[in-house]
Amino acid sequence: MNPPIFIIIMLTVISGTMIVVTTSHWLLVWIGFEMNLLAIIPILMKKYNPRAMEAATKYFLTQAAASMILMMWIIINLLHSGQWTVLKDLNPMASIMMTTALAMKLGLAPFHFWVPEVTQGISMSSGLILLTWQKIAPLSILYQISSTINPNLILTMSILSVMIGGWGGLNQTQLRKIMAYSSIAHMGWMTAIMMYSPTMMILNLTIYIIMTLTTFMLFMHNSTTTTASLSQTWNKTPLITSLILVLMMSLGGLPPLSGFIPKWMIIQELTKNELIMMPTLLAMTALLNLYFYMRLTYTTALTMFPSNNSMKMKWRFECTKKMTFLPPLVVMSTMLLPLAPMLSILD
Amino acid sequence: MMTYIVFILSTVFVVSFVSFSSKPSPIYGGFGFNVAGGIGCGIVLNFGGSFLGLMVFLIYLGGMLVVFGYTTAMATEPYPEAWTSNKAVLAMFITGVLAELLTACYILKEDEVEVVFKFNGAGDWVIYDTGDSGFFSEEAMGIAALYSYGTWLVVVTGWSLLIGVLVIMEVTRGN
């Protein structure tokens, strides 16, 4: 894309999210969402093939429908409360429908169908922005209305999301679809804790963004999009092989890596609120996620995947891709667990 | 009739939306769009927003829909689909109109209707002159506030419009 246009469009994506996050007026929330949506469409369509066009269209339609539902219930909230401020006491019906609209934007089950298809149709770097930056705005609004969210609705959606994120990702070999189902499952974890401790949701979001950023960057480093091509990284860049191992374990939520922090904190907060079955179900269905991360690890780092002999002897070229900030990100995605006692400042 | 004018206009508004939502060719859909724009202007006028209603006609119909009409004319197809061309479009149109008419009859018959919020039959659509808004119309004061206190909103909306144009050009550029 033409560089000045690209800069303007990225600026609008960023400012759209910033407007949603920082505003106290419901109209500006809607405007921010629409700015974000409009500006990210050309980023999704960076490559001009029909697959990318179809993915961008699907994304646009679902997000526009969600924005419309949000706008309608903003106006009905205005009818009942007489003011436009984003406060925590919403009309209960408006709160339910706004949660539904924001769940459509996030890709929570049962509105998750667009996530794998859109993520698969676009390039790796666009998928990166889609799965990390685009989650910030809806989650910030859910944070602001978190005290009035209907528990039945949000907990149902979150359990369904974790289950669908787990089972849906099992039969996938395409890395972008795997990351999409991983995103659905992580959103489920985040919304589960939202009613009880929104701070833990922010913690989970932060660690999820760091881990997903690192994963995508490692995939982009060798331009791999399938499991089969990822299994050849031992020959191209051996360092990436071990990093993928550690990162997948972190994504799966295993101690002693940073991915364990949000899961631990969420289960702790849920049990403090006397929910027992829910964190048990969440933890058990998260094992499905761990299974397909393990499969990636197995084919990449632990075995030599079947291939021709000619693919086992490659020239090692220097990587020309600019992987800004990748080493600090890898460190942050794997080694933050010893800093977990710092969370006591929240008390 | 003037007491129920907003109700009547809203019903016809929905019917004109149905007429282009049933997806005929864009030329015929554009006709429904025009009618909807004009009726929307009428609804806004009935709430006292004379300036904004006429803005709808001028900018929305006279600017944006005209451009839409020209681009549709450029992209026209040899056999455009009208509402009676194929059964799917006709069925959707009839479904939409029927749903709207049934809703309107239900509102007119029952005394109190609760769909999302309660309102008493068609009487709630009547605009009484409640409240003393002083010598100035609230709508004109709102527009004045947009350009004085609401500078940030003007910046945001202006930027969004610019981005809309840039995005459309970027998407349709191809190659």
From TrEMBL, chain B:
It catalyses: a ubiquinone + NADH + 5 H(+)(in) = a ubiquinol + NAD(+) + 4 H(+)(out). This is NADH-ubiquinone oxidoreductase chain 6. The gene is ND6. Its EC number is 7.1.1.2. It is found in: Mitochondrion membrane. InterPro entries: ComplexI_Subunit6, NADH_UbQ/plastoQ_OxRdtase_su6. The keyword Mitochondrion applies. Its main location: mitochondrion. GO terms for molecular function: NADH dehydrogenase (ubiquinone) activity; oxidoreductase activity. It is an enzyme of class 7 (translocase). Core subunit of the mitochondrial membrane respiratory chain NADH dehydrogenase (Complex I) which catalyzes electron transfer from NADH through the respiratory chain, using ubiquinone as an electron acceptor. Essential for the catalytic activity and assembly of complex I. Belongs to the complex I subunit 6 family. It is a multi-pass membrane protein. GO terms for cellular component: mitochondrial membrane. It comes from Felis catus. Pfam families: Oxidored_q3 (PF00499). The chain crosses the membrane at residues 31-48, 55-76, 88-108, 146-169. Keywords: Electron transport, Membrane, Mitochondrion, NAD, Oxidoreductase, Respiratory chain, Signal, Translocase, Transmembrane, Transmembrane helix, Transport, Ubiquinone. Residues 1-16 form the signal peptide.
